[in-house]
Amino acid sequence: MKRILWVFLPLAFTLNQNSFAQYVGPNAVIKTDLTQILADPVDDEYVKLQGYLVKKLSSDKYLFSDGTKEIRVEIDQFLFPAQPFDDKDLIEIEGEVEKDFLESAEIDVDRLTIVNQ
């Protein structure tokens, strides 16, 4: 009898997993204005920006511009799309602000999408 209890007790907890409520409200606010981000960079704040990669700075660092302001972005190679693009192609990036002590803010990109080509 104890063996049966030890087998079915953990199973009972896993079956009841879907009965817990989940949060379904609106997402957190996402900043989309580079001027605001540069004026008051908040570490780990999620952002979504449209603009252009205007310069490659190192193996994974680039200069991103929205046409008026510029910020350094870090993009892992696997995030780049299969088709090539250049500094004239509008892209959208999503990621988090990285603001380290005594350093300028940069964006750690999680997603890169070509808007037009």
UniProtKB/TrEMBL annotation:
Claim: Cytoplasm is one of the keywords in the record: no
Record keywords: Signal
One Pfam assignment: BOF
Residues annotated as signal peptide: 1-21
Cited InterPro entries: BOBF_sf, CarO-like
Name under which the protein is recorded: NirD/YgiW/YdeI family stress tolerance protein
Lineage of the organism: Bacteria, Pseudomonadati, Pseudomonadota, Gammaproteobacteria, Oceanospirillales
